[in-house]
Structures are given as C-alpha cells and as structure tokens.
Amino acid sequence: MDLNLKDKVVLVTGGSRGLGKTICMVLASEGAKAAVNYYRNAEKGVDLVKEAEAVVQEIKDTYGVESLAVGCDVSIESDVIEMFDLIAENLGELDVLVNNAAVCPTCKVHKMSEQMWSETIRTNLTGTFFTSRELVKRLLAAERQGRIVNIVSQAAFRGSTTGHAPYDASKGGIVSFTIALAREVAQKGICVNAVAPGMIRTEMVAKVLKENEEKYLNRIPLHRIAEPKDVADVVVFMSSERACYMTGATVDVTGGILMR
After folding, report:
1. Does 257 reside within a domain?
2. With contact defined as beta carbons under 8 Å apart, do 50 and 41 qualify?
3. What is the CATH number of the domain that holds 36?
C-alpha cells in the first residue's frame, strides 16, 4: 500500500532514540523527510546532538532521503518556534507532526514535589500544545492540509501502580486535547489523532523487563512485549493520507490491554 508520504516533511519530537527513532526510520522508508528532534540540554548537549545526528546519517545512508537533527526543549515556546523555522529553511514546511517527546519520573504522589509534577505536565502536555499550535498556525496561514499524531499511553486510561501519576495525567490530557483540536480544525483538512501504546521493548524499560518480564507479559493478552516497529507502523499509517477519514481518534496498540 502506497502511503503517499514521499517528500512529505515530518517532525518527530523525541526522535533520536527508542520509539521516536523507529518512527523516523519507518517514515524515511516511505520517502518522507524526517526532522529528528532531540532534547536541547546544556549539560548533555554534545551527547544528545551526536545521537540525533547518527539517526540522520542512518536515514540518509539507508534510504537516501533528506533528514535533519533539530534540538529543542518542547516546553519552551521560543524553542519550538525556532525549531519550526529551522525545519522550514532546510527541509520545507511541515506536513506532519508526531508528538512523541515525553518525560516519565517515578515517585509516589504523597512524596512528589510540585516541581516534578509541573515539569512533567509542561513537557508532555504543554509541549504537545506548543508544537501543535505552531503547526496549525502555519497550515492555516498557507491554507494547507496536515496531520498531527500524538503518542499517548494505555496509562492515560488505566493509570499505573509504579509511581507515574504526572505522566499518566499528562497523557490523559493529551487524549482530551487531541479531541478538542481535531474538532477545531477538521474542516480545514487537518486530522489530529493519537496512538496509545502499551509496553515497548526499548532501553527505557530494559531494566524492569530483565528483572521480571513475565509479570508484564501476563498483563498482555497477546503475551509479548511490543517491538518499537509494531507501534511505529501504526503511527506512520496515521500520519498518511490513508488515514484521511480518521480524526479525534485514539488507536489502541497495546497487545490487547485496553481493548477499546
């Protein structure tokens, strides 16, 4: 099936590792120009830049398409605007935005600081607002159609038992934001959807899986941990014209945990 993504310009926030990296690679395999976002951080700057640039080089070597590493803290409005300008100058105006960047601190609510709560909400939820707003502004000004795909989580609906309340709340907020924005822009040809993964086999969960993988397998009806590509394939489909009659939806990619 041709997804008609060739030469489309796509931004994947948090695109330099884990699920984000795989989404970038699958998009590139369809001929899309991937802007690989990484967290712009003064302390870890060099390492994070190298990581994103390595993804860009892999995309170019493997698929022969244009790609660009773009640093940005999505929780900072000016950073987001600067990132969009940089992408437009180097790859062209964005067609698709995949909001994947997120933080997930671990702490029980009764021990949690206001700072931890606020920083999580600001990165995950407000960051999604900043990037989505910037894309919508530009699409409307140019009278162009586009796609937004927000990465949420089964935890948006089920919560967690391991101390991730601000993450869970932020993802629930993104589900509601997805619906609200989809209603606002539907008649302008802009589709806004979400994808809700379950557990994905990435470096983020490698430690807990090593300690007790069977515990997590027993929660999943399909009885396997998702590989990043299992989820990335769905995200890329939702980014394409093949999903043009879907908006405001949250797609369950949990191996059967949600079944909604």
Report:
1. no
2. no
3. 3.40.50.720
Instruction: Assess contact for 21 and 55: CB atoms under 8 A.
Output: yes
Q: Quick check: is 244 in a domain?
A: yes
Tokens 């493997």, residue located:
62
Q: Domain for residue 1, yes or no?
A: no
> Cβ atoms within 10 A of the Cβ of 50, count?
12
Tally the domains of the chain: 1
Please return the burial class of 42, using the count of CB atoms within 10 Å of its CB with bins 0-12, 13-18 and 19+. Answer: exposed
Per run of 10 residues, the mean pLDDT along the chain (length 260 residues) is 96 97 98 96 74 98 98 97 98 98 96 98 98 98 98 96 95 98 98 97 86 93 97 98 98 96
Residue 3 lies in a domain: no
Catalytic residue among 39, 63, 167, 245: 167
Give the CA distances from residue 188 to residues 69, 137, 145, 178, 247, in Å, rounded to whole numbers and listed in that order: 29, 12, 7, 15, 12
Full-model pTM: 0.97
Determine whether 167 is an active site residue: yes
Q: SS3 for 154?
A: coil
Task: Give the integer Cα–Cα distance in Å for 104 and 171.
Answer: 11
Domain that holds residue 70: 9-251
- Which tokens sit at 256? 């059967």
Task: List the 33-38 sheet strands across, edge first.
Answer: 67-71, 33-38, 9-12, 96-99, 146-151, 190-197, 250-253
